[in-house]
Amino acid sequence: MALTPITLSGTLGERHRRLNSLVREAGASGASLQEFQALPEHSPVDRLFKIDLASQLRHVDYIIQNLQDDDMLYVSRALKSKWLVDHHDVVNPKHLEDVLFPNMIKPAVSKLKHWTYINLRDPAMCREFYLYYKDNAFEFAIKFLSHCSNEFILGEIPTILTKLSSQFLKILSEKCPKVAEIYYNSLATDEEVRRRYLENQQSYYNSVKCVLKSDADVFLDITEKYFDMNGFRRLSPSSSDYILRCHKHRFTSKPELYTAYVLHMQTLADRLSVEECQELVMRLARAKYLQSWFQYKAVEPLVKRLSPDKRAAFKKRVFVDKDVGESVDEWTYEVPAPPPHTDCSKHIFDDQYFKPILPIIKIPKRLIKKKKCGVSRNKCDYGIIESTVQTKTELEKLFEEFRFLGFNRTLHDLRLRLGAASSPERRRDIFMVLVSKTGGRSEAVSALLSLAARHRNEPVHIRAAVVRSLVKRAQVWRLPADVWNNLLEFGHDLGLDGSTPEADCKEGLHAVVIRQLLAGECQPAISAAFLKEFSTLTEYSLSPNELLQLAAGLQNLLYAAALVAEPDVAAERLNQLLDVLNTYRVCIKATSPVVGAIVSLASRDAEVARPLLQRLYHAKVARRELLRLNLEFRRDQASLINVLRHDLLALDYKQFGDIITSHKTNFDTLISKLSIYFPKDAFVTQLRIYLKQIFLEKKENIDQIVLANLARSLASLLGRDFETDLQELDTKGTDMRHLTAALRANAHRARPAVAVASWGWRRAGVKAVATRAMRGRQAERAELTRALAAHRRTLRVALANSMLSAREAQVHAFTAAAQRRPAAAVRALFIYFRRFGDKSDVSIWDIVKPVMLSMDMSILSKRDNLRRLIKDQVKVVPSSIKPDYCVTLYIVLLKTKIKYLYSNVDNILCEVSKHLPQIEDSLELVLLKMLEDADVREPVTYPSIFVRYLLLSKSDEDLESRFEKLGKPFLAHLDAVRKEHDWVFRKLFSETMKSLMYNAAFFDPKCTSCLSVIEKFMAWMESFMPREQHFKQYARVHLTMLYYKAVRASVQQLPAVFAAARRRRVEGVDAVGFVFGRYIARELAQLVTAYFDSVVELYADALADYVEVTLVAGSSRAQFVVSVLKGILAEGVGTQRRLAVYIFKRRHYEMKEPLQKELEELMYKEKDIEVLVHAELERARFY
Is 10 helix (H, G, I), strand (E, B) or coil? Predict the structure, then answer.
């Protein structure tokens, strides 16, 4: 029986194997765990031995005991007992949440949760976990759903469709393909599912591709109904191949759709017969609805399936003569389309929100002068706008002309043009077309080179272009000797003989190299030139046999060149050799010559060889043989661990220490392995002493990140001596305070664990206390939060810890912070909002709100982050708190006039106005402050908020009180602005009149004084605006009054419609619109009686502007206007109904065609205006 302490020796792997063998021996000996459990633990290995033995013996209690340990090493080791998942009395959600999790540290809880959903596979248990966490932790719960039974999944899916991401849709569809069908069927009925789908529809479509091979009909039904022809990518070659092999009938039923949009074109061409390809191209050519897509390039793979002798005639028939039969104008079957977007436009019953009106800014005269000068100068600057339509080059036009002709016919025609061509560039274009027509055939290339031989004196750049194209397209290295010589003669002075070229033609040189390497010998001049323009030559079309010969030839060429070259050049050649070996997939072994050459180069010049050694390491070549070299050059954690695994003789504590202290990355894995498996080795003792020495010597100028990493490593290696060494450093005075603070911050890394809680925060340091608190157990968290909140220095830790605690701890922590550290409380408030969202407790806001109100933003010059946080984080505030928060923030910002603080105060006011009905009780102070700060030069920037505050009055007495305090001063302020700045007043007046239209007040039965407010504003207008001269403005105000009356009458007549939100936004529009139209007709009759008949035309102009400016734009506005016109026609008198004709003429473009026809029929029935209807509607159609 093995006894502690356990002693291990050898490499890291040998120590692992030795520990495992001891566990197996102890288990086979029949000894119980209790015998070993009583033995003392001298090192972490002793505990690991006990945990492994308990795992082997399936001792549940000891495993659970280690799950509750503070050291994650033991927690992770205990979780290797995967059999624990079968103990349902332990691994069930209620026991975990009520018993186990509260007594585990936070990282252990996260790890156990991850372990649970990775290893739990029992459908019944997965169902239990899913149902337990479904409501409060859906992202965690859904991870169990895929392991439940198919029946349960199908029953649960309809209830969670709105929460389903594309990732989980894929996981569930793999288990149960019916899930994909349910999801896509819901797009027609569920607006929220449709909205989420349309935000990322390609991702959702990709997630159901897994269904193809399990239930192809489901996937193909989805594709044929929801595939986005304008946005989705084609299916992969493997998916296309499967469809064509196993479900070809789906393709044959809709070949145009699958060919043009869905399937991989090359795979389609490979799977169809020649006859099928030909017939498919003909069908596509007949489809006029595919005209924009159908081009030769699009169907080239299909056309190329035809034999060369038939291909030219077929291309001419389809693409030149267009002899394809009778064309088809429309799709003959239903084509797929994504579900329609939900109407996101504003509703007619939504209120307008206005932008702040900018104050008057006085521009200095010198700036005005400069501006004028700039304008006068710029008036003479005219630019020429070039067309963005791409025009074809001469070469492209020549290609198009001969695209569908064979080589012989092209050669015959272009031979004549070649002699008549006046410019070298034109002759180059002719040669390029001929090269493309050769198709790489030897006889065609021979004929072309025979023609080219007569033009061997063409300019060098023309010949270079022809040679480059020939090499790329025609595999010229395979030409017969006489034809090859013609090529060399044509390419004279292009460097094909290894000399310096007069024009760039490296492709020609590459062809020479390929031909000579295939022949077995490369001339020295050619080799030297090639190494200057090196290429692996794989960009050319080479046969498998040629690839093998070139791989061997290039290796010999490069290896020979590297042996005799200087280190820099040798490194370049060896790097090229590695490229060749990688490109040609030649296996590199430790005994390969290239490895020996790199090692030899490293001995000559270490720095030059470093990149080559790194390449070998990343390619996993000769890692063990080059271990020490890799350690020298790589100097990272992976190389140090490799030394522990394979070569302990290479251990050098100074080298290890220098590597650790010269990097800004941590070496936690390495240090952990040393402290666990090598604690008593002399190497570790020396390394600990050396690191401690560095730690003390470099205290003055050491980098902070390096210092933190060094402290982490030292804390782990000190082990049981951590407290002793820390006390020793404390005795050395304040010079060591910086170093001891870094050590204390890593106290949690010491093993065995240090009792930080017993030290107190002053001795332990805030960082160590924060780590202890944030990793703490749930059962201890509330008490720990209260203890931390008692001290000012640890209040921020208490606030952070309270976010993980119950409400009582949060209230206590925020209360303490508001008293002692108000700025910290405000910062923590936004963290709280982001974490809890709409579940945030209002009581937390009530605690912090007085703190914000008491803060002076002007003294926060050193706290820019806090100031920006308060101003810019409105979006994270929960909707239930946002109204009060906006008002509070506005009051805080109004306290200062510093420009950069005051800059977005009006934007906050916009937020205030959006929440006006909820915050009217606290708004009076804001409005009084606005009036107090306003003057003629800087008037009120948001007049609508005053008007709407008055409209929210609950009684006549309430209105009189509000109007006396705010209404009269506000109107007096507008009068003062009118007398000084007429153009500013016009803006303020326009917004004031528009804001009289306030649906939130009109639909609220408590707001009984809306009509009185409008009348007061109309009385104010009469003081400076005569009715006859400003008929349109008064008519618009009257229309608002009529709209208000229509709303109240409709709500009274149809309470059931307006009580239901959905019916109100659909049926309510027609109801209010019809009553509104009847009221308009009655008022029009009064106006005609009071004035004259042509007032109808004036009123029509005012009504049209009212609809455009005052009513909220959106799809519901058109429906509303239709109902208004119906009301006018129903209530109108005689020719006064022509008002409906004028409005219809002005607004018909917003209406859908069925609504237009319905209104036209109604208007045609009215005999009094029949002639006018015909005239006006015909004119509207004409325009």
Answer: coil
Q: What are phi and psi of 986, to 5 degrees?
A: -60, -40
What the block records as the tokens of 515 is 């031909």
Give pLDDT, residue 662.
81
* Helical H segments across 821-881, by residue range: 822-836, 842-854, 864-872
**Do residues 51 and 63 lie in contact, with contact meaning Cβ atoms separated by under 8 Å?**
yes
Query: In this model, does residue 950 exceed pLDDT 50?
Result: yes
Report how far residue 414's alpha carbon sits from residue 455's, in angstroms, rounded to the nearest whole number.
14
- List, for residues 614-656, the tens digit of each pLDDT value: 888 888 888 888 888 887 777 888 888 888 888 888 888 888 8
Q: Decide: helix, strand or coil at residue 105.
A: strand
DSSP for 176-238 reads: -THHHHHHHHHTTT-HHHHHHHHHTHHHHHHHTGGGTTT-HHHHHHHHHHH--TTTPPPPPHH
Amino acid type, 325: G
pTM of this structure? 0.80
Closest to 1035 (Cα-Cα) out of 1093, 1111, 989, 1087: 1087
Please state the separation of Cα 920 from the chain's center in Å: 39
What is the 8-class DSSP label of residue 82?
A: G
Interval 993-1012: pLDDT, tens: 999 999 999 999 999 999 99
Q: Are 49 and 2 in contact (CB under 8 A)?
A: yes
pLDDT band at residue 319 using 50, 70 and 90 as cut-offs: confident
Rounded percentage of the chain residues whose pLDDT exceeds 70? 92
Measure CA 558 to chain center: 46
* HEC-encoded secondary structure of 493-558: CCCCCCCCCCCCCHHHHHHHHHHHHHHCCCCHHHHHHHHHCCCCCCCCCCCHHHHHHHHHHHHHHH
Rounded CA separation 556/560 (Å): 6
Q: How far is CA 349 from the centre of its chain?
A: 34
Cβ-based neighbour number of residue 1041 at 10 Å: 17
Residues 1166, 1135: Cα–Cα separation, whole Å? 9
Check if the beta carbon of residue 437 is closer than 8 Å to that of residue 406: yes
Determine the Cα–Cα distance for residues 287 and 655; give it in Å rounded to an integer.
Answer: 74
Classify residue 87 as left (phi > 0), alpha (psi -120 to 50) or beta: beta
pLDDT above 90 covers a percentage of the chain that reads 37
**Residues across the chain:** 1183
Nearest 5 degrees, angle CA 404-CA 405-CA 408?
160
- The pairs formed by 561-570 with CB atoms below 8 angstroms and a separation of 24 or more are 561/527, 561/531, 562/597, 562/601, 563/597, 567/601, 567/604, 567/605, 567/608, 568/605, 568/608, 570/597, 570/601, 570/608
Does a cis peptide bond (omega within 30 degrees of 0) precede residue 338? Answer: no
Residue 1011 near residue 1041, CB atoms below 8 Å: yes
Handedness of CA 473, 478, 482, 487 (dihedral sign): positive
Segments making up each domain of the chain, as ranges: 234-335, 639-775
With beta carbons less than 8 A apart as the criterion, state whether 1020 and 993 touch. no
Which residues, 6+ apart, have CB-to-CB distance to 368 below 8 Å? none
DSSP string, 278-310: HHHHHHHHHBGGGTTT--TTTTHHHHTTS-HHH
Sign, CA torsion 98/103/106/107: negative
Residues 833-877 have pLDDT tens digits of: 989 988 899 999 999 999 888 876 655 544 556 666 666 677 788
Angle between helices 1138-1147 and 1061-1090 in degrees, nearest 10: 130
- Cα 477 to Cα 440, 446, 484, 509, 512: the distances in Å are 11, 13, 8, 11, 7
What count of other Cβ atoms lies within 10 Å of the Cβ of residue 860? 18
